[in-house]
Design goal:
Length: 317
């Protein structure tokens, strides 16, 4: 079904207002933008585990964090199970020094990373952002979940900005959950079942695991980024990570963002123009075009769940 953007916004705001959640406008803006830019895996469906965590008290209604370490050019934060989307939005909205590194652990799910890197690119900053989450990815040839999908986003200032936003797995876990809810198959070759065999059944894929992009090379790129995340933030890693999708547990994951003032460097926009003309589009261009829509398509199952959440408060307790 298609629903007007404003109507969907109002419904989501009502869900959060009834639960007295801080930053409801920021959260709704994030989920709506995810849908509009083609990131439905990190869009409206993510409000369900957020509300579940709020009602089970594994996610705080109000942002309350602790600065663990801080310098002129860096900050390490323990989010204390605050809402990740609200916290990260606040962090990148402050006056930033010339270049800066932000590291956060123990925040709830922060949505799609391109939301943050795009805003920084529009403000003239280069940014690189990565993190970890609950295990979803198997090592090639195995059937045990070891790593998260290892999200990565890179933003480069231009008009429009270049914004890479992707999982380093063959697909995002949210896309498999979406396929499961819709009752459709997933592409061949992106996931295995519990026996380690390729499957197109999203139910079997969730029992098994997702394959890394690029085989073993991709797996080792992923594990290195996740090690870097844990090393910098002090977060859990691999099978230790909990509370991101299944919010019955508090989150113990981490994220890192490296922010660079582009004025310190060459700002070679000619390279961006050349490559955009050469191949037709660059990362982020498709999402920029999609974002002009005034309607969002969501499946009936998800819409009915939103109505139930609006009708019954609390829903999970």
């Amino acid at each position: 079904m298609n629903i007007k953007v404003d109507d969907l916004k109002n419904l989501l705001l009502e869900l959060l207002e009834k639960r007295d959640i801080e930053g409801k406008e920021i959260i709704v803006d994030h989920f709506i933008e995810a849908e509009l830019r083609g990131h439905s895996s990190h869009g409206v469906q993510r409000i369900i585990p957020l509300i579940k965590g709020i009602e089970l008290n594994t996610i705080r209604r109000r942002v309350s964090y602790r600065i663990v370490k801080e310098s002129q050019f860096s900050i390490l934060i323990d989010a204390n199970h605050s809402i990740g989307i609200v916290l990260w939005n606040n962090l990148i909205s402050q006056d930033l020094p010339s270049s800066y590194v932000i590291a956060v652990r123990n925040a709830s799910h922060i949505g799609f990373l391109g939301y943050y890197t795009r805003r920084l690119a529009n403000a003239g900053f280069i940014s690189i952002m990565f993190g970890n989450a609950e295990p979803a990815v198997v090592m090639p040839g195995k059937n045990t979940k070891i790593l998260s999908t290892t999200p990565l986003s890179i933003g480069i200032p231009s008009n429009p900005p270049v914004v890479l936003d992707m999982a380093l797995s063959s697909t995002a876990r949210g896309k498999i959950i979406e396929a499961q809810r819709k009752g459709v198959s997933i592409p061949y070759g992106v996931a295995v079942d519990s026996k380690g065999e390729i499957t197109t059944d999203p139910n079997e894929a969730l029992k098994g695991g997702i394959l890394p992009m690029g085989g073993e090379k991709g797996f080792y790129l992923m594990i290195t980024l996740e090690l870097l995340t844990a090393y910098i933030t002090g977060s859990a890693i691999g099978p230790q990570v909990k509370g991101v999708l299944n919010t019955e547990n508090p989150s113990n994951k981490g994220e890192v963002m490296i922010i660079i003032n582009s004025n310190l460097f060459e700002k070679n926009n000619n390279a961006i123009l050349y490559m955009r003309n050469l191949i037709g589009s660059l990362p982020g261009d498709r999402g920029e075009k999609l974002s002009k829509r005034n309607e969002i398509e969501i499946d009936n199952s998800l819409y009915n769940m939103l109505l139930e959440l609006n009708k019954k408060v609390p829903y999970f307790t």
